[in-house]
Amino acid sequence: MRATKIGIVVMTICGLLRLSVTTAQEADDGILRVDLETAIQIALSENPLVKVADMEVEKKDYAKKSAYGALLPQIDLIGQYQYTLKRQTMYLDTDMSSLFGGGSVDPSQFTPEELKIVEVFGKMMTPSSDADANEGIQVGRKNIWNGTVNVSLPLVVPSLWKNIQMSKVDLEMAMEQSRSSKIDLTHQVKKAFYSILLAKDSYELFRETYATDSLNLVNIKNKFEQGIVAEYDVITADVRLKSIIPNILQSESMLKIAELQLKMLMGIDSELPVEIVGSLSDYEKWMFEAIVPSDNNLSGNSDLRQFDLQAIQAKNAYEIQKLQRLPTLTSSFSYSYISQNNDFKFNTYRWDPYSVVGVTLSIPIFSGGQRYHNIKQSEIQLFQLQEQRHNLKRNLQLSVRNSVELINKSIEQVVAAESSVQQAKKGYEITQKRYETGAGTIVDLNAAALAVTNAELQYRNAIYDYLASKADLEKTLGYDI
User: Fold this and answer.
1) In the predicted model, is pLDDT for residue 441 greater than 60?
2) Cα gap 324→362, rounded to integer Å
3) Do 265 and 378 fall within a single domain?
4) Cα(250)–Cα(212) distance, integer angstroms
5) What is the C-alpha separation between 401 and 407, in angstroms, rounded?
6) Is residue 115 within 8 Å of 107, Cβ to Cβ?
7) 111 and 57, same structural domain?
8) What is the pTM assigned to this prediction?
9) In whole angstroms, what is the distance from residue 193 CA to residue 401 CA?
10) Quick one: pLDDT band at residue 22, thresholds 50, 70, 90?
11) Boundary residue ending a domain (342, 362, 382)
12) Which domain holds residue 123?
């Protein structure tokens, strides 16, 4: 008894070692083994569409920060150079001869800066014997250098605050679109994965049927050589065997196409070998325990959420149009250094400062009716979005009801198909024994084998329909990952 226990322990240890070696070989053979959860995780991290949606969220976040920046002072440093091709001419219609050069000047009447101006203009206005009375005074120099610092700050601009609100909604819209892309991608990955399982099970079923019918054909040929059965039985069995080959090729082609589609959704190389883990029959274990939502709660639906955000955007646009009627108040400050010279001797330049500070009040009066018509357009857009949302909600509710009906129908079909498979197999065994004893015909045997194949296919299709309908329902309800 003790020796037996020791032997069992030794066999168990050897089995575990063999399993670990096999697992290590499978991990190092370069084949990516994928179940449904792994496929979804890889797709969400590698699919280009999801990456683009995430980048859009980041872009909208920068746009929101940019909108806040409009409330801060705007500072610009401007450097300007101008070369005078022809100097400006200034005319003075007032007779200034009594003041400039022709009369006496009382210095007490002027400030020092004004006295300098009087002196300069006195020299310029000194009468000349050959001067024309209508000749103007040319002012300015060839080279004009200007360095300016401009500062502006919005004080009261109502539309800026509304733009900030719109940027927040834009960010929320981008986040919801990113969520929607992930939900759509998950839905597509599930459908592609289930399609692979269906094609894989169908392919294996036809291969098993082909192997079984090959043995039957060999037995029938042996019986024909012994003179037990007629040649018709050999021909019929051979025709049935060859008729399975197109089904094998078709299911193999469907399997390859489904695998390529899954690889594309996962964002991996199409040449990378992938092994799909699982089968449709594995999902039958928990499909009867899954809770199917009985209500039409669409609060998680991404399409409705996006419509609601679009309505908020349209409302903000409508309010911005109304705010265009309000006055705006902005402040500004400018500080400049200006130098005018006729040469390029920079070390001798004289730079004169010039600065101003001011406040600008802008009051909209008339714009040709543009603001009024823009407001009316925004109102119509709000009504359009409201009607479109009602229509979308009705369609989504209908889609939920259809998905629930299909799920319930698929569950009933799975139960019925499973019973049919058992009955078909039992009927095939009976028919095979009848044929071996001579009580049955080859036609009966082929019909029984075909019934088994059809029942197996219906069983797998019913499970696939359940899984596909459940995936559709989860997408409509907006289930997060």
Assistant:
1) yes
2) 11
3) yes
4) 19
5) 10
6) yes
7) no
8) 0.72
9) 24
10) very low
11) 362
12) 78-154+330-362
